[in-house]
Amino acid sequence: MGRLSQDLRSAFQLSPIIEGGTVQVTSALPVIGYQSIDCGTTVYSLPAQKSSTATRLYSAQFVSGNVLGIRYFSEVNLVNTSSQNRTVQLLLVGDDGNPVNVPGNPATQTLSPGSQKRLRGDALFGLPDPLFAAAGVVGSLTLASDGSGVIGTSFSGRR
Asked: pLDDT value at position 61?
């Protein structure tokens, strides 16, 4: 029933700049893990996830731009836990249940084995920068992968 909290840089003796990746934990006893990420004005955590056999994933929240006078952004975090390249298609769906009609929707990304990609939603779908957008886009995401092993999260914050 102990707890270990450690910065990845000190745990793995990494240089100050970390460009993504994954940490795999094995134990003879049950372990619960999470990652805490500090982005300056926003702090969030990601729960540990098992590799998935699913090829379709969903994220219930996406928001980008000016919504009721507040500037929001969304970020998508994708990890390929498999040993093969994975191509994923992300579809931005509006609150009305229909795909959002923007030039970058759907968006396609390729993930190398064991790689991680953190993507800003506005850049991913070709939306205006949330700081300058006249309006906002609110909805959800559907991810379709060409094979198993892709996991991920998304989060939204205020600018």
From this structure: 87
| Segment holding 144, helix H or strand E | strand 136-145
Structure tokens at 8: 């990845």
Question: Rounded CA gap, 129 and 46, in Å?
Answer: 25
* CB proximity list for 79: less than 8 A, separation 6 or greater: 22, 49, 111, 115, 116, 150, 151, 152
In order of 8, 30, 55, 76, 80, the CA distances from 37 in angstroms are: 11, 23, 26, 13, 19
Q: What 3-state class would DSSP assign to 140?
A: strand
Widest CA span in the chain: 53
> Residue written as tokens 């790689």?
115
Q: Alpha-carbon torsion 109, 141, 54, 154, what sign? A: positive
Q: Give the pLDDT confidence of 112-144 residue by residue, as tens digits.
A: 998 889 899 999 999 999 999 999 999 999 999
Domains contained in the chain, CATH given: 51-158 (2.60.290.11)
Q: Which two tokens stand for residue 118?
A: 């953190």
Q: Are 127 and 100 in contact (CB under 8 A)?
A: no
Whether omega before 106 lies within 30 degrees of 0, making that bond cis, reads: yes
